[in-house]
Automatic annotation (TrEMBL), chain A:
The UniProt record lists the keyword Nucleotide-binding: yes
Subunit structure: Oligomerizes as a right-handed, spiral filament on DNA at oriC.
Protein name, entry field: Chromosomal replication initiator protein DnaA
Stretches the record annotates as Domain IV, binds dsDNA: 336-452
Keyword Glycoprotein: no
Chromosomal replication initiator DnaA C-terminal domain segment(s): 362-431
Keyword field: ATP-binding, Cytoplasm, DNA replication, DNA-binding, Lipid-binding, Nucleotide-binding
Record remark: domains: Domain I is involved in oligomerization and binding regulators, domain II is flexibile and of varying length in different bacteria, domain III forms the AAA+ region, while domain IV binds dsDNA.
SUPFAM superfamilies cross-referenced by the UniProt entry: P-loop containing nucleoside triphosphate hydrolases, TrpR-like
From TrEMBL, chain B:
UniProt GO cellular component terms: cytoplasm; DNA polymerase III complex
A GO MF term: DNA binding
UniProt entry tagged with the keyword Secreted: no
Protein name as annotated: Beta sliding clamp
Domain DNA polymerase III beta sliding clamp central: from-to ranges: 130-242
Lineage, highest ranks first: Bacteria, Candidatus Yonathiibacteriota
Reported function: Confers DNA tethering and processivity to DNA polymerases and other proteins. Acts as a clamp, forming a ring around DNA (a reaction catalyzed by the clamp-loading complex) which diffuses in an ATP-independent manner freely and bidirectionally along dsDNA. Initially characterized for its ability to contact the catalytic subunit of DNA polymerase III (Pol III), a complex, multichain enzyme responsible for most of the replicative synthesis in bacteria; Pol III exhibits 3'-5' exonuclease proofreading activity.
Pfam families with a match to the protein in the record: DNA_pol3_beta (PF00712), DNA_pol3_beta_2 (PF02767), DNA_pol3_beta_3 (PF02768)
Keywords, alphabetical: Cytoplasm, DNA replication, DNA-binding, DNA-directed DNA polymerase, Nucleotidyltransferase, Transferase
Transmembrane segments: none
Any GO BP annotation: DNA strand elongation involved in DNA replication
Domain DNA polymerase III beta sliding clamp C-terminal span(s) in chain numbering: 245-364
Domain DNA polymerase III beta sliding clamp N-terminal: 1-119
Species whose genome carries this gene: Candidatus Yonathbacteria bacterium RIFCSPLOWO2_01_FULL_47_33b
Claim: NADP is one of the keywords in the record: no
Length: 452, 366
């Protein structure tokens, strides 16, 4: 089969000879072959007027030319299809007013109402680093084989502001682009439960509409699934939808801020289903990735702060990409106001201002979280026992209190059952050393940290 | 072709049709209006491949046939025949003759084999609405659509459905207007984006009638069908921003004042405002002060004290006076409310107690 574009170009060349210049340029501008299947050629046209006219006037002529080039073609269908006009690429014109008046914040709201996807989120703007490599690789595998791959369902988890939504929406947008026929749908769990509650209130008919609605998709993406905790009936409905989609080899993608096993009040049958495919986490970006992200953002905003500023930001602001972006935006704004680049000293207080205040948790609360995680009685931690199942959580608690909450060694010892500060120091050292060799320990600590 | 018909109606519809003929297009036939005589009606058709119109007027037909004539020439010719009740039009071999009691004109016609057909929407979703309700809805928001073609979706009017209301929305990203028109029996599951140039033509045609119009929308096209008229337009394939999310749900300052007062003040202010139409609104509910002031270093200054009911926090905000002025025409009530959420957040303007029209305008930054 000849390549679509090649075939259409040859057809057009033939038609050009038979038609007047005016006719040809009016009716065949921005047309293209979208696809061929079983001898039917589907021709994309810019609007209904052209569709009507090609069908009524030129159909025979087009068919004849096409058959001359490729004799297995039997019929043509015309569909209205948006084709980017490459010849007259529109440059964003300079807006003199934007300096005077801020724009309404509509840019973030270009959400396709049919599939819920925001076209802004693509892989072109997605920065890949060590922190999200695995999630990215999984998403690429999905793109190659939608539905029928081992990564179904794909479950992506990680803290807020690390690009989960960007990644899963980019998958949706990419699939939409590559497979126009596939039905893609993105929804947040919150919207889903609102939709469910609304349809419950309105009787059997809307309920069945609801059930039908979610089962027709080829790619179903649900964001922020942790908000489904405690919503039993919504979970049940999701369970049924999941089964239906899964059995029909439809791709399913979920995201959450924590591992499914740690989402409170989530039904076991959902947990086990989430775990049946691939679970990947997105970590906090490391220094190099942060640098890359800042460079990319500077590029987008067409604003290039001095290298030392970017470097300082990347090294001093940890974690959340969204915060990183916010800081950069703040610096851009300040620089535009002052009409010069900010110096390092001017930026330092800025970062201090926006730094997130450390959450205040009492030692007792922290210990409780850790005990719950390891499923032991809280009291045992404070007792003088060296049973193995108690010892490890106790040591980890000491480690976390010291590392994450900056509590002094003597205080930790005193709070955890009146121990000597050297004991605490030893415990912290031990955990640190163990972490270098014990992978599961690292994971456990990561998961515990995610809960604060 | 040989027909006789009422002069006024052919004059009116040819004038409408002429407006949508294509200008400067590569296909010259689009400059013309096509007249078709068949089954006791005269059909007048024109299109520029963005919008297509078709009108039917009753006519006394002695010989069926069709002819394509230059739109502007025909419209101007008919406009200058003022003294007659009826006109007789006949065409033979591309030469058209118009005969009245006192005049006889011949116009050279075009070959119309190439005259495009107008797409007819058969199945689509839609609603039936009286033409004046539709034009009211569209005209309330038209002025807020962007004029440049850079972003086709915002140089358009967005039409969608909320409950049993048809909602018209337009924004140029600095201001936004939304008008809701109640219409039972509406089903539009996906909104359509109609280019503002096209909806202006639709409005102009629908304004000439008061009948109920059947509106049908599909993914690619919208059509309006009346007893004797049919208009269809392309729609923009794209995504309209989910603007509902930026409509403020609360406010910190509220000002209620007479529309006429505001109008008069703004008229005065525009004489003195700068090229950005900047007006400064200062409100202090405790001191019961509401002042609109303007300043232009080259002309002078104004300061107007307005009588208004005020509540909430004091505020001083710079707004585009022209934007406020534009929306007042769409407000039917005598009193308007202005709601503020701080000097860097959009201001909301509505008719008092009327939620069908909402207008958002961004403050000026300097």
């Amino acid at each position: 089969m000849i390549e679509n574009t090649q075939l259409w170009e040859n057809t057009l060349r033939e038609l050009e000879n038979e038609l007047s210049r005016a006719n040809f340029s009016t009716w065949f501008k921005n047309t293209a072959i979208i696809k061929q299947e079983d001898g039917t050629v589907i021709v994309g046209v810019p609007n209904e007027f052209v569709k009507d006219w090609l069908q009524n006037k030129f159909h025979k002529m087009i068919l004849k030319s096409l058959r001359n080039l490729s004799d297995h073609i039997r019929s043509i269908e015309y569909v209205v299809h948006k084709i980017e006009d490459k010849g007259t690429e529109k440059k964003e014109v300079e807006k003199p007013r934007s300096a005077m008046s801020a724009e309404l914040p509509l840019a973030d709201l270009y959400v396709n109402r049919e599939d819920g996807l925001n076209p802004r989120y693509t892989f072109d703007t997605f920065i890949i680093g060590a922190f999200n490599e695995l999630a990215y690789a999984a998403s690429q595998a999905i793109l190659k084989k939608v539905g029928t791959n081992v990564y179904n369902p794909l479950f992506i988890y990680g803290n807020t502001g690390l690009g989960k939504t960007h990644l899963i929406q980019a998958i949706g947008n990419e699939i939409k682009k590559n497979h126009p026929g596939k039905k893609v749908f993105y929804i947040t769990s919150e919207k889903f439960s609102v939709d469910y509650i609304n349809s419950v209130g309105q009787g059997a008919k809307t309920m069945s509409v609801f059930k039908e609605k979610y089962r027709k998709y080829d790619l179903f993406i649900m964001d922020d699934i942790q908000f489904l905790s405690n919503k039993e009936k919504t979970q049940e409905e999701l369970f049924h939808i999941f089964n239906e989609l899964y059995h029909n080899n439809k791709q399913i993608i979920f995201s959450s801020d924590r591992h499914p096993n740690y989402i409170p009040a989530l039904e076991d049958r959902l947990k086990s289903r989430f775990s049946s495919g691939m679970i990947v986490d997105v970590q906090e970006p490391e220094y190099e990735s942060r640098l890359a992200i800042l460079h990319a953002k500077a590029q987008v905003n067409k604003f290039f702060p001095p290298e030392e500023v970017i470097d300082y930001l990347a090294s001093s602001v940890r974690g959340n990409i969204r915060e990183l972006e916010g800081l950069l935006n703040g610096i851009i704004c300040q620089s535009q106001l002052k009409n010069r680049h900010l110096t390092l000293n001017e930026i330092k207080p800025f970062i201090k201002n926006t730094a997130k205040p450390k959450k205040l948790l009492s030692v007792k609360e922290i210990v409780k979280v850790i005990c719950d995680f390891y499923n032991i009685e809280e009291d045992h931690v404070y007792e003088k026992t060296r049973r193995k199942e108690v010892l490890k959580p106790r040591q980890i608690a000491m480690f976390i209190l010291r590392e994450d909450f900056n509590i002094s060694y003597p205080t930790i010892g005193q709070k955890l059952g009146g121990r000597d500060h050297t004991t605490v120091m030893h415990s912290c050292e031990k955990v640190k050393i163990d972490m270098q060799s014990d992978l599961s320990l690292i994971q456990e600590i990561d998961q515990i940290r995610a809960m604060f | 072709m040989h027909i006789t018909c009422n002069r006024e109606s052919i004059q009116k519809y040819v004038a409408h049709a002429e407006r949508v003929t294509g200008k400067n297009l590569s296909l010259p036939i689009l400059n013309s209006v096509l007249l078709i005589a068949a089954h006791k009606t005269l059909i007048i058709r024109a299109t520029n491949l963005e919008v297509g119109v078709e009108f039917q007027i009753p006519a006394n037909i002695t010989k069926e046939g069709s002819v394509a004539l230059s739109g502007s020439l025909l419209a101007n010719t008919l406009a200058s025949i003022t003294d007659e009740q009826e006109v007789t039009i006949s065409a033979d071999k591309g030469i058209c003759t118009i005969i009245t009691k006192t005049k006889k004109l011949t116009i050279k016609g075009f070959l119309h084999d190439d005259f495009p057909t107008i797409p007819v929407i058969k199945d689509g979703e839609g609603f039936i609405m009286s033409s004046n309700k539709f034009t009211q809805g569209a005209k309330s928001v038209l002025m807020s659509a962007a004029l440049s073609d850079v972003k086709p979706e915002i140089s358009s009017v967005y039409l969608h459905q909320i409950a049993d209301q048809v909602v018209f929305t337009a924004t140029d990203s600095f201001r936004l207007a939304e008008k809701k028109i109640k219409q039972t029996g509406t089903t539009i599951s996906h909104g359509v984006i109609i280019p503002v140039k096209n909806i202006i033509e639709i409005v102009r045609v629908l304004e000439s009638t008061t009948e109920d119009i059947n509106f049908l929308v599909t993914k690619n096209q919208i059509s309006c069908t009346g007893k004797s008229l049919y208009i269809t337009s392309r729609v923009v394939q794209g995504v309209y921003p989910d603007y509902e999310q930026i409509l403020p749900k609360s406010h910190t300052t509220e000002v209620v004042l007479l529309k006429q007062d505001l109008l008069n003040t703004l008229k005065l202010s525009t004489l003195f405002s700068d090229k950005f139409h900047k007006v400064v609104v200062s409100v202090n509910p405790d001191k019961k002060i509401c002042i609109i002031s303007t300043k232009n270093t080259e002309v002078g200054e104004t300061e107007s004290n307005l009588t208004a009911t005020l509540s909430g926090d004091p505020i001083e905000i710079s707004l585009n006076g022209k934007h406020i002025f534009d929306c007042l025409g769409a407000i039917e009530k005598d009193s308007v409310t202005m709601e503020f959420n701080g000097s860097d957040k959009p201001a909301v303007i509505r008719g008092l107690g009327d939620n069908s029209f909402t207008y958002l305008t961004m403050p000026l930054t300097r």
